[in-house]
Amino acid sequence: MTNHNLFNLDGQVAIVTGASAGIGLAISELLSSLGAKVAMVDKNPDVVTQAEKMPSHCLGITADLSEIDKMPALIDRVVNTFGRLDILVNNAGIGILEPVLEVKQQSWDATLLINLTAPYFLSQAAGKVMTQQKYGRIVNIASQASVIALENHAAYCTSKAGLVIASKVLAAELGKYGITVNCISPTVVETELGKRYWHGERAEEMKAKIPVGRFATPEEIASAVAYLISKQAGIITGENMIIDGGYTII
Fold first, then answer.
1. 99: in domain
2. Residue 205 needs a FRET pair 20 to 30 A away by CA distance; which of 115, 175, 177, 216 works?
């Protein structure tokens, strides 16, 4: 018998970063449609307006994730608003692309700060709440760049590979509290940010390397998140789900 409530999130509270557009917005929309109350976090103030359009009760929070010392306060605000915290999706990220011999320390530091340090310390702050509840789901959006080398992506690849191994350590230590921690590593996703770099001949050359012949959609990534945060995925932790149309298998 098919259980149509497998992914029901009624009564659950989620935080999604980078939520004003692209993958983060798609994730927020899906989680909200499944019944979750979503705290949508983004540096772009448009996130407040986006939150008002969601199917369920959502909260838009404008925040700069480079301010690591403010992570506990962000978690506290969500818990004080909704009463608990069940799900954290670290989606926000940046990509500053430079050839390896031209990478600037400023670019390197900024990339690791947003792509690795921020999600780690936000996971730490969320984990302290989840351990008290004896339940939680953390999903970190990494990249196929976490497992392969891409030209001009030295800092980006390093940040995403670091995010994957940090997630494994979090998973190992938090599992006994009923908390799972996983990564999703997409190929190029058809967002405005993705299209900014992957367009024209460059995009066609990349698609030719992908067995399915296309890029991913934000909705496909959101659906993977919905599975990993479901109770049915409680046995899955410390994994890196690569969603790349087969790019990394050949």
1. yes
2. 115
